[in-house]
Amino acid sequence: MVFVRLRSGDYLYSRFAKARQGILILPTDILFYCVAGVAVILVGLAKGGFAGLGAAAMPLLALVMDPVAGAGMLLPILMVQDVVSVWAFRRSYDRRTLLLTLPGAAIGIFLAWLLASVINEDAVRGFVGVIALAFGTYRLLPLMGMQMKLTGPAPEWIGTVMGGVSGFTSQIAHAGGPPFQIWALSRNFPHLVFVGTSSIFFTIINWMKVPAYAALGQFNRENMTLTAAFLPLAILSTFAGVQLVKRVSPERFNIIIQLLMVVIGAELIRQAMW
What we know:
Elements (H helix, E strand, L loop, with lengths): L7 H13 L9 H18 L9 H6 L4 H22 L6 H24 L2 H20 L15 H18 L3 H9 L5 H25 L5 H24 L5 H24 L1
Helix pairs in contact: 2-4, 2-10, 4-9, 4-10, 5-7, 5-9, 6-11, 7-8
């Protein structure tokens, strides 16, 4: 897990020396906790009703830590929050959509795990940047009079493909929403069915990601300590989102976040290429 830029030899010596001594290695930079705190708050607000905000969490974390470690830290938080959303919408979902999309999602998760296991940290950071830039731009298109989405009844195989893309981007950056939504919105579900199907879909693929992150060694003591430290903030921000969504326009807030995603995505790509 990398939190600060050090010469590789110095970092590796320090990392493995401390690991052998059983020392808990946590970041000490206050900037890390500020940025990670904002990322966790965005995840909480997204679960509380500001849909789309959670996709900005991983790009933010990738600015201050190893993106794979950041995703591993966030996953248990997402899984705790999933319990609430699934319970709320357990009777409102479309079974056929889940049967079509989940097999593709499993393949996408496997391919993303395979990729993350053979490329370095900066390459993963670049992938996160591309995903953030693409999805931020996609969500800003309606403001420019353009919108890329499937209209009318689409072939069911497209649902499996979109499920695969969603699984891949979710494994890399916990950003599987847009691919799934592009196809699911074309089904013209009632609002509650759409929300419920999305909640159950992402709950299942979050559990699918557990073996992949375990194989990458991300459920270590350092990551789980950070997860426990940020979990109360995530829960509080979820309840705050439930209250704020009744008073603040989610659309206006989303515009700011998507612009932020575009900027952060470009910066992550710059870092990866540099």
